[in-house]
Design goal:
- The chain has one domain: Lysozyme-like (3-Layer(aba) Sandwich).
- The chain contains 4 helices and 7 strands.
- By secondary structure, the chain is of the alpha/beta class.
- The site of zinc ion has 4 residues, from loops.
Amino acid sequence: MKAIGKFILLDMSEFDSWLQAQTVKRKIMLVQQHHTYIPAYKHFTGSNHFQLCQSMEQAHKERGFAEIAQNFTTFPDGKIMVCRNLNTIPAGIKGANSYGICIENLGNFDKGKDNMSSLQKECIIHITRSLLTRFKLVPSETTVVYHHWYDLNTGKRIAKEGIGSTKACPGTNFFGGNTVEAFKTGLLPLLK
Ligand SMILES: [Zn+2]
C-alpha cells in the first residue's frame, strides 16, 4: 500500500482489508464498469499509477467535475487505485451514479486496441466480486453495469442494442464485448 494525498494504491490482496475498514454511509446498488480509453496501455510505464490518476483528475476538473470522477482505477499490473471517496457519488454514468460505484479500468478495450492483461482481468473480477459481496448484491446485469447500456442524453437504460445515443465504454472487446449479452457470457459467470 502506498498513498499520495487521497490516492491510495493497493495490491489485489490488500483491497479486501482496505474495503472492510471503510464505513460507507450511502446506499450502493450497482458497480459501473468503464475503460479510460486515454490513458491507454501505451501510457502506462509500470510505475506511473499516481501520475496517471493525477492527470486524469486534472482532465476531469477541466470538464467541470469537483475531482477525479471514478471511485477506483484498475491497472494492467493488477493494482487498484482508490480515487474518489466511496462516500462521494461518482461522475460515471448519467442516470446511474446516486447508488453507484464507478470503476475505471485503465486501457482502451475496443476491438483491435489494448489486449487486456491477465492480471488486470483478475483484478477487475476481484474488485467487482469484493464490492458486490460487501454491499450484499447478487451479480447480475442490474448490479454490474456497463456505460454503454445507458443513453447519454436521457440517462436511461437503452431498451435494445443499437438504440439511443451511447458510448462504446468499457470497450467493444471488454471481456468479449460491451453488450448485455456479451456481459452475460463474458464477465457475469466469472463473478459468481
Ligand atoms: Zn465510461
